[in-house]
Amino acid sequence: MSDKEKKQLALTGGLILVMVFFMVNMVNDLGKRGKKRAERQAQKKEAAVNPAKAADSSGSVSKVSSEKLFNLENISRASAIKRDPFMPVSTRGGQIRFTGVIWDSQEPQAIINDVFVKVGGNIGDGVTVVEIRKNSVILSDGSENIELFLEE
Predict the structure, then answer these.
(1) How confident is the model at residue 54 (pLDDT cuts 50, 70, 90)?
(2) What is the DSSP string of 84-122?
(3) From CA 29, how far away is CA 15, in angstroms rounded?
(4) What region does 59 belong to: left with phi over 0, alpha with psi -120 to 50, or beta?
(5) pLDDT tens-digit map of 102-145
(6) Taking Cα atoms as reference points, which of 120, 122, 74, 73 lies closest to residue 96?
(7) CA proximity to 113, closest of 139, 83, 144, 145
(8) DSSP helix/strand/coil, 5
(9) Which end of the chain is less crowded, N or C, counting CB atoms within 10 A of the terminal residue's CB?
(10) How many CB atoms sit inside 10 A of residue 114's CB?
């Protein structure tokens, strides 16, 4: 074996040792991360199974009284959304702004209060779109129909 081949063999061996060292460190780091991830998942499962316990960020567990939990559930039920959150808050007593029509003979759309609506769509407070024409829209609140025209 020549000196050049010996040097190449030594260099290759050294590089293999360095590579093995880094791989061992990487595997150890992954193992530590996996343990932490497993602990977090176990805490989430425990919180889902037993909502009367709440874990804070330090990992300690505090108990919530069942009376307080019951009150929170009642408050949550009482504040349930009773309207479409994407519709304007109120049209009755307020102003209805009819600003445009996107005309399509199959599915025309009107722009009312900055919202795109189709025939049958609700614009709030029980007001629905009955008909959309090229320059007007007919709305109904259940008791009467109102026709709004585009400004020219």
Answers:
(1) very low
(2) -TTS-S--TTS---EEEEE--SSS-EEEETTEEE-TT-E
(3) 21
(4) left
(5) 998 899 999 988 889 999 998 877 889 999 999 999 998 888 88
(6) 122
(7) 139
(8) helix
(9) C
(10) 9
